[in-house]
């Protein structure tokens, strides 16, 4: 007990002696504790979101949406007969990818929307509606709408607010009546499902696609994508037409992943960051103990002479760092108690569902135990080296421990700066210490480089993201009526001065399956000439040019062990064709299932295939929404539009023209007519017209959709990468400060002598700063190489993230200057070394 | 009479410890003459070392001025003093203070390269000086803890004179050496002085003091006596010793 008391006093005295270093170390432990405990707490908290959501909503686990025109009642029987399916229900909803809404700034923003009635919602989910309004207030409301929680939490809508939906040139204004929890289509980042009144639903029915919604549960382990693919195949086989293009499937795993995947991934990055910090803490503890032993070697000898065992002295060091860590842990725990609820709350907002979780003490306890055990282990291993210094050897200041090997950088060979040469001597003398520094700076550089590239990438323009995603990002994507001729219309579009290019392509209406690979559903991206594409590039091989060639994604190639030159067999209903893989594209969109194929290639497997979509590229500075409006106005009329256009105030000629257009709409919708011209004589007047106004089914502002869907993720990544960069820079700064402090302490006498013989403090500070530069140079180069390789490895799976090497090199230079600056400033304690004090001691 | 190389005006040095002030040097005026071998003697605590550090720019005075020639160095910053020292001063310490992690040669080069740039000439000069003080070539690549005390001090002297200092300060240079080594070291000092090197040396030892031509006796931070002698080797040693002994006896030594 007495010995323990003495050990405690020794430790405390050491802490007090090196207050600043102890505080720096404590801050790092605090950061580590806060990040790790908060992230663990957050992950545990978010784990409840999905089961809570499923319980609250009573939702089915899997959904399939099939367009009403392609649905057959027999499909339900097929589903029920499958022994993997446990329970199922049928409902219906309206869904469109061409809908916009007016955001808080009054600007039109694209968002995928789904509308459903309360009655149909009850067939698949029974989530209670939450509202602050009374029944009478809701009853008095015009066009009430219930929206998912995410709209309230992340888009800041509240009861009574107006929600303005825009489709084509038409605007529909709803009033928010309340909010509800939904498992299906829950956030604006994916699709937003909203509950509207029966009457509003009927109005929307005229313009939006109606889908039959099949909800079903499967026996665990038997469902998933395989069940979905098999089901679509069976539906297609039964109906004799390809159903895959008209179907949208959401599996249990998909629902689960959509809820917390992004938030959990970001939290896992926090844990990685805390691991980086703890490695740096270990290196710093080693620096400090080495410095302390060297400085206090004579005192150690005295203590040993007085009867202390080397284990006692070792324990005093261990206790010192445990005390420092405990202080950091206490502060870190306090911060994590504040941060964890905030993280859970952000997770709830991002996912759009309540978690019902509170802060758990378990992650805090585990983190505390891990940090303390780690600190104790590291400090014990380093401090136990005092056993190498028995009293007499310690009195001789460790002499006998010196090994004089090769003489490095002899000064007689100095050609230029003596300071540089002395710095290099110092670098080699402290080689082990520099290895620790190299490790810390390398890890920090990797973090900084990866975060910097990701930050730039996600805060940059959407083109970079599109290239990385392997999808074509035009300005507007026009979906044509079934009857329209895409090539003729594209030619007409390029005549418009604001449009620089119009490229016919495939919409998401036809899917192909890969029979050799679990019948995976492949989503074709078809173009006549891929050199026309601005965002799709093969990372390996070349574009497909002939009708028997395709490109697949890197991700799919890795998954199926396919490579350029291999063949892949594809199915569409009853047609099976083999294609040669000419190239690979880095893309993780659609789960890496994109298939890049020529139009002729598509016709080879789907003989009736024709492009139904046009990618429109606008000239620089042209407002996409203005063009979208004018195109919709001119070419985007529909039966519903025509029906709505009836007005008593119109002139006789206008009424005739409207009636003619109504007829045209009916003929085109019902009989597959592609072009109609009319001429009606009324007295002396001939009223002429044609079907040109019925070409476009819908127009999507692609960039606006990407901004809506990626906006939150981009902000999250930007915030997180910035946080990581700041922490990494802070860690490097603290490490360098501590290293300099410990070096000065260890070599105080040497620096005193050098000051005595005429070296200025500034020159010695420069020498010390130069001393770390070889380690810094190597670390920054190695960190950059590893960081870039990591990014390449990552991007070979998920998409191509472009690394701007000149910018990364500039970043490296800034990092090196920063390291030099920190070391220089950290070495300022040299100024306090008094030559006299040294001489008279 | 030689001209003044260093002089002070009302030099004071006060140390403060726990609020207690200790006046070590009190209004001291001293003149160090060029080419003199000045020996400062006095009892322990008389302020010898403090005076040496103030004169050499190792420490700043609390009050008063220190002039090197006509240059007032008492207002210099620490870095200015360091530059001043490297250009003008050489130091030999009792504890020698060689850099333990450097070879003999590098210890001297460290001091030399900070003031001079031509390393080729320096290498030759260092070699010549080492040979002159009796350090054989096989020792040049050894480290200080592989050398005897006398060898270390001879290396220390070479380091002190490598930049041809205008003045050489020595703080009890033989204090930690045996008599044979002491004699060798003192012979080097005598030789340097005979070639015109200005030297200021602190010592307790009368044998060492005999090598000087001027002895200043310090008591309680003030000069209480001064004794002049002919240059060492030019007079009768016994007579020289008796003269100095009489002076010191008079000072209460």
Automatic annotation (TrEMBL), chain A:
Gene Ontology cellular component annotations, sorted alphabetically: plasma membrane
Organism: Ruminococcus flavefaciens
Residue stretches spanning the membrane: 20-46, 265-285, 318-344, 364-384, 435-458, 710-739, 768-791, 803-825
Domain ABC3 transporter permease C-terminal: 271-390, 723-834
Name used for this protein in its record: MacB-like core domain-containing protein
InterPro entries, alphabetized: ABC3_permease_C (IPR003838), MacB_PCD (IPR025857), Macrolide_Exporter_MacB (IPR050250)
One Pfam family linked to the record: MacB_PCD
GO molecular function terms attached to this record: transmembrane transporter activity
Primary localization: membrane
Recorded family membership: Belongs to the ABC-4 integral membrane protein family.
Alphabetical UniProt keywords: Cell membrane, Membrane, Transmembrane, Transmembrane helix
Automatic annotation (TrEMBL), chain B:
Annotated family: Belongs to the ABC transporter superfamily.
SUPFAM superfamilies: P-loop containing nucleoside triphosphate hydrolases (SSF52540)
SMART domains for the chain: AAA
Tagged with keyword ATP-binding: yes
ABC transporter domain sequence ranges: 6-245
Record flagged with keyword Transport: yes
Molecular function, one GO term: ATP hydrolysis activity
PANTHER family in UniProt: ALPHA-D-RIBOSE 1-METHYLPHOSPHONATE 5-TRIPHOSPHATE SYNTHASE SUBUNIT PHNL, LIPOPROTEIN-RELEASING SYSTEM ATP-BINDING PROTEIN LOLD
Protein name according to UniProt: Putative ABC transport system ATP-binding protein
Database matches in InterPro entries: AAA+_ATPase, ABC_transporter-like_ATP-bd, ABC_transporter-like_CS, MacB-like_ATP-bd, P-loop_NTPase
Keywords per UniProt: ATP-binding, Nucleotide-binding, Transport
Transmembrane feature ranges: none
């Amino acid at each position: 007990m007495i010995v323990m008391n003495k050990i405690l006093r020794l430790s405390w005295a050491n802490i007090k002696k090196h207050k600043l270093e102890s505080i720096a170390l404590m801050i790092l432990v605090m950061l580590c504790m806060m990040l790790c405990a908060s992230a663990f707490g957050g992950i545990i908290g978010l784990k409840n979101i999905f089961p809570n959501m499923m319980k609250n909503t009573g939702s089915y686990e899997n959904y399939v949406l099939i367009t009403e025109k392609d649905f057959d009642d027999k499909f339900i029987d097929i589903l029920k007969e499958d022994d993997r399916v446990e329970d199922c229900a049928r409902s219906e909803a309206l869904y469109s990818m061409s809908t916009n809404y007016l955001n808080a700034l009054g600007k039109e923003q694209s968002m995928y929307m789904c509308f459903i009635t309360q009655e149909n919602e009850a067939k698949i989910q029974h989530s209670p509606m939450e509202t602050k309004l009374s029944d009478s207030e809701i009853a008095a409301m015009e066009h009430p709408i219930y929206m998912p929680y995410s709209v309230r939490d992340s888009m800041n809508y509240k009861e009574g607010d107006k929600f303005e939906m825009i489709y084509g040139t038409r605007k529909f204004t709803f009033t928010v009546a309340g909010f509800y929890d939904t498992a299906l289509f829950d956030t604006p980042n994916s699709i937003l499902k909203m509950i509207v009144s029966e009457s509003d639903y009927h109005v929307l029915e005229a313009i939006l696609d109606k889908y039959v919604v099949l909800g079903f549960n499967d026996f665990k382990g038997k469902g998933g994508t395989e069940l979905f693919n098999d089901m679509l195949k069976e539906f297609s086989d039964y109906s004799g037409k390809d159903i895959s293009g008209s179907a949208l499937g959401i599996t249990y795993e998909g629902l689960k992943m959509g809820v917390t995947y992004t938030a959990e991934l970001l939290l896992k990055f926090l844990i990685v960051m805390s691991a980086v910090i703890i490695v740096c803490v270990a290196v710093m503890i080693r620096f400090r103990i080495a410095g302390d032993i060297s400085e206090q070697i004579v005192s150690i000898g005295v203590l040993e002479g007085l009867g202390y065992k080397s284990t006692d002295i070792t324990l005093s060091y261990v206790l010192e760092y445990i005390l420092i860590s405990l202080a950091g842990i206490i502060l870190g725990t306090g911060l994590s108690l504040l941060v964890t609820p905030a993280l859970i709350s952000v997770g709830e907002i991002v996912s759009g569902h309540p978690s019902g979780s509170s802060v758990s003490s378990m992650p805090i306890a585990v983190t505390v135990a891990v940090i303390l055990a780690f600190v104790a282990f590291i400090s014990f291993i380093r401090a136990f080296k005092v056993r190498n210094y028995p009293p007499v050897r310690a009195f001789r200041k460790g002499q006998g421990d010196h090994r004089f090997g090769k003489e490095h950088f002899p000064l007689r060979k100095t050609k230029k700066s003596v300071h540089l040469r002395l710095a290099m001597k110092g670098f080699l003398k402290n080689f082990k210490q520099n290895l620790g520094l190299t490790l810390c700076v390398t890890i920090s550089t990797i973090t900084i480089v990866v975060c910097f590239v990701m930050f730039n990438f996600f805060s940059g323009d959407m083109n970079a993201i599109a290239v990385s995603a392997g999808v074509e990002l035009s300005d507007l994507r026009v979906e044509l009526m079934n009857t329209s001729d895409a090539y003729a219309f594209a030619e007409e579009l390029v005549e418009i001065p604001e449009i620089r290019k119009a490229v016919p392509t495939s919409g998401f209406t036809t899917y192909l399956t890969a029979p050799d690979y679990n019948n995976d559903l492949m989503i074709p991206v078809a173009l006549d000439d891929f050199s026309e594409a601005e965002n799709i590039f093969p990372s390996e091989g070349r574009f497909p040019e002939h009708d028997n060639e395709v490109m697949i994604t890197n991700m799919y190639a890795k998954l199926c062990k396919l490579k350029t030159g291999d063949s892949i067999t594809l199915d569409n209903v009853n047609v099976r064709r083999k294609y040669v893989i000419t190239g690979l594209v880095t893309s993780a969109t659609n789960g890496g299932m994109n298939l890049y194929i020529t139009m002729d290639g598509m016709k080879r497997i789907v003989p009736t295939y024709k492009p139904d979509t046009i990618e429109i590229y606008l000239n620089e500075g042209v407002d996409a929404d203005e063009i979208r409006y004018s195109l919709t106005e001119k070419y985007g009329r529909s039966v519903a539009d025509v029906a709505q256009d009836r007005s008593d105030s119109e002139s006789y000629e206008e009424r005739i023209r409207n009636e003619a257009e109504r007829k045209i709409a009916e003929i085109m919708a019902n009989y597959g007519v592609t072009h109609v011209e009319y001429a009606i004589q009324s007295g002396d007047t001939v009223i002429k017209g044609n079907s040109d106004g019925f070409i476009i089914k819908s127009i999507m502002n692609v960039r606006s959709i990407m901004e809506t869907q990626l906006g939150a993720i981009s902000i999250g990544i930007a915030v997180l990468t910035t946080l990581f960069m700041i922490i990494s820079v802070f860690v490097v700064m603290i490490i360098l400060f501590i290293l300099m402090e410990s070096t000065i302490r260890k070599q105080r006498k040497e620096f005193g002598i050098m000051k005595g013989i005429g070296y200025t403090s500034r020159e010695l500070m420069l020498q010390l700063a130069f001393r770390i530069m070889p380690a810094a140079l190597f670390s920054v180069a190695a960190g950059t190489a590893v960081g870039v390789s990591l990014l390449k490895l990552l991007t070979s799976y998920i998409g191509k993230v472009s690394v701007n090497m000149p910018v990364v090199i500039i970043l490296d230079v800034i990092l090196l200057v920063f390291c030099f600056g920190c070391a220089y400033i950290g070495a300022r304690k040299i100024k306090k070394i008094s030559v006299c004090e040294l001489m008279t001691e | 009479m030689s001209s003044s190389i260093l002089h002070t005006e009302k030099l004071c040095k006060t140390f403060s410890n726990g609020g207690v002030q200790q006046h070590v040097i009190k209004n001291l005026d001293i003149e160090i003459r060029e080419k003199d071998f000045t020996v400062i003697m006095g009892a322990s605590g008389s302020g010898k070392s403090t005076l040496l550090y103030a004169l050499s720019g190792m420490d700043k005075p609390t009050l008063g001025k220190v002039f090197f020639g006509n240059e007032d160095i008492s207002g210099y910053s620490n870095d200015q003093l360091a530059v001043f020292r490297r250009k003008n001063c050489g130091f030999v310490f009792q504890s020698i203070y060689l850099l333990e992690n450097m070879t003999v040669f590098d210890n001297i080069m460290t001091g030399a390269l900070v003031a001079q740039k031509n390393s080729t000439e320096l290498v030759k000069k260092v070699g010549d000086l080492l040979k002159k003080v009796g350090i054989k070539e096989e020792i040049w690549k050894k480290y200080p803890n592989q050398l005897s005390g006398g060898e270390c001090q001879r290396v220390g002297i070479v380091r002190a004179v490598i930049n041809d200092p205008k003045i050489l300060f020595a703080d009890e240079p033989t204090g930690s050496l045996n008599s044979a080594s002491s004699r060798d070291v003192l012979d080097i000092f005598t030789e340097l002085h005979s070639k015109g090197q200005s030297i200021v040396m602190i010592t307790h030892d009368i044998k060492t003091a005999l090598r000087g031509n001027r002895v200043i006796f310090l008591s309680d931070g003030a000069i209480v006596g001064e004794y002049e002698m002919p240059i060492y080797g030019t007079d009768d040693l016994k007579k020289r010793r008796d003269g100095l002994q009489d002076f010191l006896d008079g000072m209460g030594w």
